[in-house]
Amino acid sequence: MLKSFKTEINPTSEQKVKINKTIRTCRYVYNFYIAHNKELDDNGEKFVSAKSFRVWLNNEFIPDNPDKAWIKDASSKAVKKSIENACTAFTRFFYHKKQTYKSRSLKCRNFIKE
């Protein structure tokens, strides 16, 4: 039997600001990940996994671009999940559009270009 629960939240104005910042940051990071891998694919380079992208984003990109420091203001778990979702979406898109990949697995860590 399936059950559902209806939940209502009444955030304060400060919480609303934090929620909106987190949503905007996750949207930006998701699109940035997709664009980054699309650019790599167009140049014939290897796919970057979600974990490798997170490491690069936190250790190289943000320190080199201080104007993007606002990414660190959002919840790290939300940003991580957004990158993982982008990885899954990117993998599924290219899995169905291009049959030139060795692995038929949709997991990002097994995504290897021929």
Question: How would you describe the overall organization of this protein?
Answer:
The chain is built from 3 helices and no strands. The protein is mostly helical and 114 residues long. The longest helix has 30 residues, at 13-42. Mean pLDDT is 85; it is low at 99-106. It is flat. Helices cover 59% and strands 0% of the residues. Helix 1 packs parallel to helix 3 (76-97) and helix 2 (50-64) crosses helix 3 (76-97).
Tally of strands: 0
User: Which structural class best describes the helix and strand composition?
Assistant: mainly alpha
Query: What is the radius of gyration?
Result: 17 Å
**Poorly predicted ranges (pLDDT <50, ≥5 residues)?**
99-106
Portion in helices: 55-70%
Number of helices: 3
Strand content: under 5%
Please summarize the sheet with the most strands. none
Oligomer: single chain
Mean pLDDT over the full residue set: 85
Shape: flat
- The termini sit apart by 46 Å
- Give the ordered list of helices and strands: HHH
Give a brief outline of the structure.
With 114 residues, this protein is mainly α. Helix content is 59%, strand content 0%.
Draw up the topology in text:
Elements: H1 13-42, H2 50-64, H3 76-97
Helix pairs in contact: 1-3, 2-3
